[in-house]
Amino acid sequence: MTSLPQTTQKKLGLVIDLDICVGCQACTVNCKEWNEGGHSGPLTDLMATGPDPSGVWFNRVHTFETEERTVHFPKSCLHCDDAPCVTVCPTGASYKREEDGIVLVNADTCIGCKLCSWACPYGAREYDEDQGVMKKCTLCVDRIYNPNLQEDQRVPACVSTCPAGARHFGDLGDPDSDLSRLVAERGGYDLMPEQGTKPVNKYLPPRPKTVSEAEKALKAVGMADDGVGDAGFFARLVDRVLTK
Amino acid sequence: MHPAKSVIYFTVMSGLGYGLVIWLGIYALTDHNLPGGWNAGALTLALALVASGLISSTLHLGHPERAWRALSQWRTSWLSREGVAAIVTFIPLGLWWLSWMLTEPAAELKGALTDMERVFAILGMIGALVTVFTTSMIYASLKAVPSWHTIWTPLAYLILALYTGLLGFMAILGLAGGNPGVIAEYGLYLLAAGLVVKLLFWKHTRAGSGSTTSSATGIEGDVRLLEGPHTQANYLLREMGFTIARKHADKLRVGVFLFAFGVPFLTLAALSYDAAGWVAVAGFAALMVGVFMERWLFFAEARHVVTLYYGARAA
After folding, report:
1. Which among B72, B99, B168, B89 has a CA at the least distance from the CA of B127?
2. Using CB atoms, which residue from A86, A128, A192 is nearest to B215?
3. Is the pLDDT of residue B106 over 60?
4. Which residues does residue A125 pair with via DSSP β-bridges, in sequence order?
5. Is there a contact between B279 and B269 (Cβ–Cβ < 8 Å)?
6. Which InterPro entries match (chain B) (predicted)?
7. Is A63 helix (H, G, I), strand (E, B) or coil?
8. Residue A97 phi/psi, 5° resolution?
9. CB under 8 Å to B66, separation ≥6 — which residues?
10. Does the interface predicted TM-score (ipTM) exceed 0.95?
11. Residue A232's CB: how many other CB atoms inside 10 A?
12. How far apart are CA B168 and CA A116, in angstroms?
């Protein structure tokens, strides 16, 4: 049924720390690795070794820059509370689970109309040309409840593999969970809040730059960048005279 | 957005077919008659156009054999509502068609419609309008495509369906030896309404939505994409990042003005001064070229907000 649940008992999701992510792609690769054989597998690749390879991935790392900094930006399904991809589905193949809020696709009833991918502002859904159905992040539903795995492994593949500790998993519906506290503390935010999708996943902003401190330290040892760099003696002299 | 040929054909042709149904219905309900054989012929053509459009729309599905499942989620999904509306509408239209097929030779003698046919025609005409509306709402309901997320989308679909339907009906009237000039006036009203609505739609498209790379990422400052997540195009870029038409959008828009509004204006004006029937056919042919261009632009020019993650600065 593509009506969204009024509320979900839990809001399982990810918190991604943009201050820590180094853009190493380990999460995207481990995601592909696990989910290739998981709930929504295979993640079909077309002409993987040809000149124009293409394939389904649940998680992709974009890199943005500002005048100040470079930010690596992993993006996967945000398991929105008001998921537009669910309500547009004409068949009921797309659904949000009442028990934990995970948004999934039933590959047996999906007709591959692609409308859900049009409805998602975040590009979280990718069409599998080979199988003719829509694929998306399952929040590793086949790991997080899996009794065959050690308890510390019962987290999404992207979280378990992140070498920098930039990805966190838990219940964002419980205001007292470690995850909710982390979000409150660091000012975690929603992507494109103007779309009204109420994403469960949150992003933690990069911490304010502390470059001024570093510059102070450099100045103290006479190595601060004074704007003349490694100019010659005469140029430095001119600069000093004109600066006065 | 990628302009899929099957969906462009579907929206234009089903709009034309439903428009024809409505004008044929109005003509018959006001006790007018097409010459012998043309009544049922025109209705057959209208239903064939609608049916071909619906079949075409299933061609882009990954699993067309599961299409029947799309009738189940009408509570939330406009696509599902459209499927239900189209099928329900076929019931009165089919009965009307059947009745005309069986009684056509006598129709001229007893007036255009029997009481029963009147009921079928009115229900079918209401269904036609509802179906065109549900089609337009599939697009208008998508907030992630700001260009479509406006009242001008359903209004444009409804008016263009009535407009193409009327000019199609006038072409049939011209071919059948009738006088299309008597209804040319309505064509001019629809032409004006269509022009105004499309201008407002394009104004809305140009205004943008206010979503930016900064709101998409939450990163403060002048954010730009430094490096994409993959070197080759993926599904998202092929489906949502279509850019070819935007390059030629202004030229295509001139084509829409010329073929969908300019030429039909001249032919409608000529017809209201009793021009020959073939002028109605020429006006209709030009309009169809213009409407196909309009529909191609509708898809190709629409920007999806996901492009903000792939280098677009605003959507």
Report:
1. B89
2. A192
3. no
4. A136
5. no
6. DmsC
7. strand
8. -75, 130
9. A91, A109, A110, A111
10. no
11. 9
12. 35
Query: What's the one-letter identity of residue B235?
Result: Y
- Sign of the Cα torsion B220, B312, B146, B241 reads negative
Confidence check: pLDDT of B110 > 60: no
B28, pLDDT greater than 60? yes
Cβ-based neighbours of A151, under 8 Å, separated by 6 or more: none
Q: Which residues from chain B sit within 8 angstroms of residue A78, using beta carbons?
A: none
Instruction: Please give the torsion angle defined by the CA atoms of residues B17, B22, B28 and B29, in that order, rounded to the nearest 10 degrees.
Output: 160
The pLDDT of residue B113: 84
Which tokens hold the place of A188? 């975690």
What six digits make up the tokens of B213?
Answer: 């790379």
3-state secondary structure labels for all residues of B108-143 = HHHCCCCHHHHHHHHHHHHHHHHHHHHHHHHHHCCC
Q: Using alpha carbons only, how large is chain A's radius of gyration in Å?
A: 23
Q: Where are the beta strands (DSSP E) in B132-236?
A: 224-227
A118, B304: Cβ pair inside 8 Å? yes
Amino acid A225: pLDDT: 62
Burial A119-150 (b: 16+ CB within 10 A, else e): bbbbbbbbbbeebbbbbbbbbbbbbbeeeeee
Query: In angstroms, what separates the C-alpha of A243 from chain B's closest C-alpha?
Result: 31
What the block records as the tokens of B236 is 């998202």
Write down the pLDDT at residue A170: 96
Q: Give chain B positions within 8 Å (CB) of A63.
A: 225-228
Pairing of strands A12-17, A103-105: unpaired
Instruction: List chain A residues with CB under 8 Å of B143.
Output: 84, 119, 121, 195-196
Nearest to A44 by CA among A93, A104, A94, A107: A107
Q: Which residues pair with A73 in a beta bridge?
A: A62
Q: What percent of chain B has pLDDT over 90?
A: 80
Q: Is A26 exposed, middle or buried (0-12, 13-18, 19+ CB in 10 A)?
A: middle
CA distance B199 to chain A (A): 25
How far is it, in rounded angstroms, from Cα B134 to Cα B141?
A: 10
Confidence label for B146 from pLDDT (cuts 50, 70 and 90): very high
Q: What is the CA radius of gyration of chain B?
A: 22
Could you give the angle at which helices B152-175 and B184-207 cross, rounded to 10 degrees? 150
Domains and CATH numbers, chain A: 12-204 (3.30.70.20), 211-243 (no CATH)
Q: How far apart are CA A212 and CA A218, in angstroms?
A: 10
For A59-116, the pLDDT digits (tens) are: 999 999 999 899 999 999 999 999 999 999 999 999 999 999 999 999 999 999 999 9
Handedness of CA B286, B287, B293, B296 (dihedral sign): negative
- Across the range B94-109, mean pLDDT stands at 77
